[in-house]
Amino acid sequence: MTGEVFPRTRPTSQPPDRDPDETAEWFASVDAVAARHGPDRTRDLLRRVNLHARSTGIDVTDLAETDYINTIAPADEPDYPGDESLERRIRALIRWNAAVMVARANRPELGVGGHIATYASAADLYEVGFNHFFRGKTAPDGGRRSGDQIYFQGHASPGMYARAFLEGRLSEGQLDLFRQETRRTSDGRPGLASYPHPRTMPDFWELSTVSMGLGAINSIYQARFNRYLTHRGIADTSDSRVWAFVGDGEMDEPEAQGALTVAGREGLDNLV
């Protein structure tokens, strides 16, 4: 990124080794055991070392989990493809409009409220996605790509409406009718649905999400179905992506976590 704060002094994707020489000695020992006695003895030896460490009071239960480390080394990161300053200002405008929309929906004579923090906390993810990653069905790509499918976090809908307002797709009057689908503006436009739902707003939302972890489980099976379409030659979805935004306690829902094994088992790298 331009204007970065952190210098690119260590071209690696791993944390620094506090004693490389000692680490090299351990590696050499493992290599020697593997070469002389084979993989079975090597696994047995490492297992015994693990048990010994536990017996001396050293907690090694977290060895299967590591801190998140970007797979791209800082020195290999490309420059940001957009105008950071302009995009930051756009995000600020959308955040403000989304917050005002929810605040106005919560005025005493209405009291319908809304979720004010969801989009504010995820605005960077959404906006970078909109500007640089998400692809529509009419994207100029030679017609091969069938378009992405996005499972928005439903409580973030004010941000989507605020963005559509800046794009000229929604009017100020419609923003003033947030969560008032049955009402209409003075020029006859409908109010805005609380959450994504293609039946209430067929020209705006493509997929319904929110309740009971629907976004998580539906996105996983959507990605799996897309693979099925490609493998059976029904439709070429090989270059399509399914994007799922899960938050606001959704990962406490058993439905949200229950299908994660499906994504892992099926190797769904078309799902983000």
Explained architecture:
By secondary structure, the protein is mostly helical. Strands 1-2 form a two-stranded parallel ribbon. Helix 2 crosses helix 3 and helix 6 runs parallel beside helix 8. The N terminus is likely disordered.
Task: Record keyword descriptors for this entry.
about 270 residues, mainly alpha, two-stranded parallel ribbon, about 0% strand, disordered N terminus
Q: Tell me the β content.
A: under 5%
Number of helices: 8
Helix content: 40-55%
Largest sheet: 2 strands, parallel
User: Which structural class should the secondary elements be placed in?
Assistant: mainly alpha
Low-confidence stretches: 1-12
> What gap, in angstroms, lies between the N and C termini?
22 Å
Brief rundown of the structure:
The chain contains eight helices and two strands, in the order H-H-H-E-H-H-H-E-H-H. It is mostly helical and 272 residues long.
